Amino acid sequence: MPPAQQAALFPDAVSRPGPTLLFRDLQDLQDRLLTWWGGPPQPREVWDPLTQLIYSLCSSRTKDAESQATIRALRDRFGGWPTGPNSWDEVRWERLRDASIPEIEDTLRLATFPDRKAVQLKQTLERITERAGTLSLAFLGKYRTDKVRAWIEELPGAGVKASAAVVNFSSLRRRAIAIDGHHQRIAIRLGVVPANATARQVEAALVPLAPADWTAVTMDEHHTLVKKLGQRVCTLREAHCNRCPLREVCVTGSAARP
Ligand code: SF4
Fold first, then answer.
1. What is the pTM of this model?
2. Which GO terms describe its molecular function (predicted)?
3. Is the CB of 191 under 6 A from ligand 1?
4. Whose CA is closest to 168, among 222, 224, 217, 226?
């Protein structure tokens, strides 16, 4: 990372500049991950922005299988299925917005913190209705990406990861990298950011390393490949550097004993 960019992102770390990166750009990482996993991940089922936001809010600190089961339970109980033939067609979530907190909490029981998430979800849907005049995020398609993200981050419980997921994973399909806990940990271990970097700082450091011709779909694939690495190789409990495809280009891995 250029010194000026590092100083802007990490003012407290200027006196302790991070190590030099061992990889050229994210394409370098992507090539290694694609070879290791044997190709790109399964294409994502793309949803409308509001459904993606609901999923992102419910899925924080929750395993993928439980998150998928939770969104299915919400769809079944509150009629949240697409109104057209495609998964990204608009979904009407008014029944979820108007449901009681106990009903929502009961439907979220597979997710972590269902009590807290039920309150937050209802508040979020009510807030969207107040601000947009209707319960829909379709109008965001007319905005620039930074404006869309700022709009989403003003909603209850929606931070930088949720805003990146909405713009990148949903039918908006804009360039952004959603930084979950796995991605954050791996970026730190790779030497991209200092150990105390936030998700926003990690994304700000990684996006300039993405080749200019990377599309939103490429960034989505990169997110998924890195997440899989974090789930199975570079885990929270242990970094299994000896069997990691990024070892040669990783500051932590290259310093570890063989
Ligand atoms: S080499 Fe080790 S620390 Fe680096 S990404 Fe791989 S498992 Fe994580």
1. 0.92
2. endonuclease activity
3. no
4. 217
- Cβ of 240 below 6 Å from ligand 1: yes
Query: In the prediction, which pLDDT does 25 show?
Result: 97
Model pLDDT, residue 1: 55
What is the per-residue pLDDT for 20? 82
Ligand 1: which atom is nearest the Cα of residue 189? 3
User: Which domain covers residue 33, as residue numbers?
Assistant: 3-41+177-255
Distance between Cα 253 and ligand 1 center (Å): 5
Do 233 and 127 share a domain, yes or no? no
pLDDT tens-place string over residues 207-258: 999 999 999 999 999 999 999 999 999 999 999 999 999 999 999 999 887 7
* 200 HSE (CA, 13 A, CB side): 10
Last residue of a domain, one of 169, 198, 233: 169
Quick check: CB of 189 below 6 Å from ligand 1? Answer: yes
Per-residue pLDDT reduced to its tens digit, 130-164: 999 999 999 999 999 999 999 999 999 999 999 99
Instruction: Say yes or no: 198 and 111 in one domain.
Output: no
Q: What angle do CA 131, 132, 134 make, to 5 degrees?
A: 120
Rounded to the nearest whole angstrom, what is the distance from the C-alpha of residue 193 to the centroid of ligand 1?
A: 14
Measured CA to CA in angstroms, residue 24 lies from 21, 188, 192, 206, 240 at distances of 8, 16, 12, 12, 23
| Contact 234 CB / ligand 1 (< 6 Å) | yes
Domain count, the chain: 2
36 and 86 part of one domain: no
231 shares a domain with 206: yes
